[in-house]
C-alpha cells in the first residue's frame, strides 16, 4: 500500500522528501539495531577485541564477526582507533580488525539483496511490542534490534519509492546520467566516495545503489565503481576518530584508508574482467538484481583482504614512514603494556622486573597528573574534546592497574628477598591509589560535562571556592606523584600537610554553599553536583595522602583503606 501511494505521488518535492526521509529512517534503523546489539553483548565486545587480536588472521575473524553483528564497519573501525588511542592495542593488532570489518559490512548489502522490504512494518510492529509491552531489559534490547531491522527496510522502501518516481519523471536525464556512468567508470568511483563521505555510512550508500540499480537501466559497469568508491568514502569515520590522538591512532586510520584505496585501484584496473565475472551472475538472478551488487561487494572485500593480507608488514612500515614523530603518551603506554604482558624477565631477574615496574608506575603517575590537569582546565572552560580524552586516560589507568597488579603477583611467587616483597606491597598500594584518583577525575569530568549540557551556572563565590580547592589538590597530586617517583620524604611531607587543608576546605565550602542555596544565590539544581565535586576532590586528596604515607613508611588509616574499595 505504501509503495502504491508513494509511486502515485505527483509532486517532485514530495519525492525528494521521500528520498531524504527514507535515508534518515534507514540510518536511524541501522544505528538503533547496532546499538541494541552492543547492549545485548554488554562490555564483552570491547573485551573480545582487546584479548583476541594476537595475530592478523584472528583479528580479521574478530573484525568480520563483530561488524556483522553491529552492522557498521565505521563503528568497528572507530572503536578500534579508540582502543589504539587508549594504548590498549597496537597498529599491528588493529590492522586485522580493520580488514575484517570490511568483510563484515557486506552482510548489510546481502540482507538488502533478499528484498524483504514488504515485511518491514511487521518487524517494526513486533519490535514495538517487545519494547513497550514486555518488562525485561534483554527482551527490550531484542525489540530494539527487531525495530531497527524493520526501520532499515522501511527507509529503503521510502527511498526506492521516491527514486523510482524521479527516474520515471526525468527519464531522459537519468538515462543520460547512467550512460555517462557506464562510459566513464571513474565518475562513478568519485560519486561513491563523495556520497559515502557525506553520510558516513557505506551501508546506506550501497543500499541506495542497490535500489537505483534495480529501478533503472544502470549497468554493472556503471554501478560497481560507485560500490568501490563507497568503500573509500567510509574511511572518513576512522580519520575523524583519530583526530587529536597520537601518531599510532593516525597510522591506524591511514591504514584503513590505504587498504581500501589499494583495493579500489586493483579492482578499477581489473574492472572489465570483474564485470565479465558478474554479468552471468546478474543474468541468473533475473537482471538488475540488488543481490548482484551484494555479491560484487562480497567479492571486492574478500579478494582485497586476501591479497593485502600478505603485505601487512610492508604497508605498516610505509605508513610509519609517512607518519613520523616522537612517541605520544598513548604509544609509550602501548609499548609498556606490551612489555607487561611478557613475564620472561621475572624468571631471569625478579630484581630487574621490580625496577621495570617502577618505570611503569612513573608512567602511570605522569598519566594521573595529566588527567587531573585536563579535568582542572575543563572546570574553567568547556571543550567538547575533553570527555573523549578523559576516557582514553581512564582506560589507560585501568589497564595499567590490572597489568601491573598481575605482573607484581607473578614476581611475588618467585623466591624474592623480604625487602623486595616490601616493595611489591608498596607498589600494589600505589597503583591502586593512582587508579582510584583516575576514577575520581572521571567523576569530576562527568559532572562538568553534564553541567555544560544543562547550562548550569555557579555563583562567583562558588567558582572561587572550587578553584581554590582545585589548586590545593593539584599541589597534592604533583607532590604525591613526585614523592613516589623520587621516593622523596620532603614532597611526601608537603602532601601530608596539605591534606588537612583540603579536608577543612571541603567542610567549609560545603557549609558556604548550603548558605548560598538557602539565600537564593545558587539554585537547588547546583547543590548536589557541587557537593559531589567537593567530595571527589577531597577523596583525591586522601589518595595522595596514601602515596605520601607509603613513602614515609606510615600505616594507612582505616578510613583511607575503605576509600580504595
Written overview of the protein:
With 565 residues, this protein is mainly α. It has two domains: 2-322, no CATH class; 330-563, Phosphate transport system protein phou homolog 2, domain 2 (Methane Monooxygenase Hydroxylase, Chain G, domain 1, Up-down Bundle), CATH 1.20.58.220. It is 84% helix and 0% strand. The chain has 27 helices and no strands. The chain has helices at residues 2-7, 12-41, 44-51, 56-70, 73-85, 91-104, 106-113, 120-133, 137-169, 171-183, 185-199, 202-215, 220-233, 236-242, 247-269, 271-284, 290-309, 312-322, 329-340, 344-348, 350-380, 386-412, 418-454, 460-486, 489-518, 524-552, 558-563. Helix 10 crosses helix 13 (220-233) and helix 11 (185-199) packs parallel to helix 13 (220-233). The radius of gyration is 29 Å and the shape is globular. The termini are far apart. Mean pLDDT is 81; it is low at 1-10 and 556-565.
Task: Provide key terms for this protein.
single chain, 565 residues, mainly alpha, 2 domains, globular, disordered N terminus, disordered C terminus
Helices and strands, with pairings:
Blueprint: H1 2-7, H2 12-41, H3 44-51, H4 56-70, H5 73-85, H6 91-104, H7 106-113, H8 120-133, H9 137-169, H10 171-183, H11 185-199, H12 202-215, H13 220-233, H14 236-242, H15 247-269, H16 271-284, H17 290-309, H18 312-322, H19 329-340, H20 344-348, H21 350-380, H22 386-412, H23 418-454, H24 460-486, H25 489-518, H26 524-552, H27 558-563
Helix pairs in contact: 2-9, 4-6, 5-6, 5-14, 5-15, 6-15, 6-17, 7-12, 7-17, 8-9, 9-12, 10-11, 10-13, 11-13, 12-13, 12-17, 13-15, 13-16, 13-17, 14-15, 15-17, 15-18, 19-21, 19-22, 21-22, 21-23, 21-24, 22-23, 23-26, 24-25, 24-26, 25-26
